[in-house]
Amino acid sequence: MPHNLKQHYSAVVVGGGQAGLSASHYLKKHGIDHVVFEKKTVAHKWKDERWDAFCLVTPNWQCQLPDHPYDGDDPHGFMVKDEILGYVDRFIKKVDAPVLEHTTVNSVERLPSGGFRVESSAGTVTTDSVVLCTSLYARPAIPRAAERLADDIVQMHTVDYRNPSQLPDGAVVVVGSGQSGAQIAEDLHLAGRKVHMVTGNAPRCARFYRGRDVVDWLADVGQYDITVEHDGMTKKKHDTNHYLTGRDGGRDLDLRKFALEGMKLYGRMEGVSSGKMLFAPNLKANLDNADRVYNGINALIDKHIAANNIDAPPASVYAPLWEPTSEPAELDLAVENVTSVIWATGFTPDWSYVGLPIFDGTGYPVQRRGVTGIDGVYVLGLPWLWTWGSGRFLAVGKDAEHVVGHLTDYLGSTNERPFKQAATGR
């Protein structure tokens, strides 16, 4: 890792997670001098923002970081936290990226004469190209309603949750039913805690269907190769992930089953007032929509099996195990002895350091497979940057290879590259 900054680099990578490391891997392969700025530590989200029982949701074979495929003996299993960290640490050592940790990038700006200036807490450099790898998960998103909760209620975002013993005795409200929320609610439920689950619009997916992991079927169907440019896919980058789990060998997460076992379910949270959480009357709709996606995915698999005359166990359709008899409008936190709230409400991006006109009206970078409309500016690691796996171990490497290939061609072909003579190795 470098101790001193050079004045100029051919490329600057912002972010030292799996996307930034993948970019560095290919930049090194192409002999392009570069530096990686990381605000905290390399791959810190895997190390510092996961709960103790965390495990992969997708099978291990989908771990396909560049030149670093899954190297264990259980490709159809689901690595637990320590195994994931081992896999990531081996990748970190293999890449040996030129990273400056604990270095905040304060601004990225285009120079009038061409090229870019990158100002960081470690100093300012110029560069011919920039790869932005800071993802959409920069800041935990917690609704303002959290400010209205009583001071004696422990509140934390999913990034800070580790295990049930971390929380005081009493009931727990989990707000948000995406992957993290559903898995943490199960973690608490299995520990015997009283859980109140506030649902949202997250879809769900079967773990196993017709004799195989659903992910294996979907790979055969070609779902992981569909790009964001296919009809109807452009909005996918804003979708909530399907909830299911790889825990204990993998299983469905069915909120209706949890309800039968004593978990209390609610519609979307609309606010907090006078010690009560208030909810929209959409619990049934949320559950029905999640099941509709579940059955729709299975129907896609049925179609594939029929079309290819595959011998497989018979098809089935999920039927609700439980139906809400009412739509709870409120939850009195004191009456229900709620002592903790887990905010599984996602994240917001932080592009404030980027002083370049590359964003659309929603604040999402305008790009095509990581290539923006400004020559020399790239983004990596975003959900549905190109395919379903773009933000994950499965395809972030493929996207990085594409981006660095484009970047290499740009550096080699442009006659207007302002620092061409100063850049080493070009």
Automatic annotation (TrEMBL):
Please give the Pfam families that the UniProt record associates with this protein: Pyr_redox_3
Source species, domain of life: Bacteria
Per UniProt, the keywords (alphabetical) are: Oxidoreductase
Matching InterPro entries, A to Z?
Answer: Auxin_biosynth/cation_transpt, CHP04046_FMN-dependent, FAD/NAD-bd_sf
* Protein name stated in the entry: MSMEG_0569 family flavin-dependent oxidoreductase
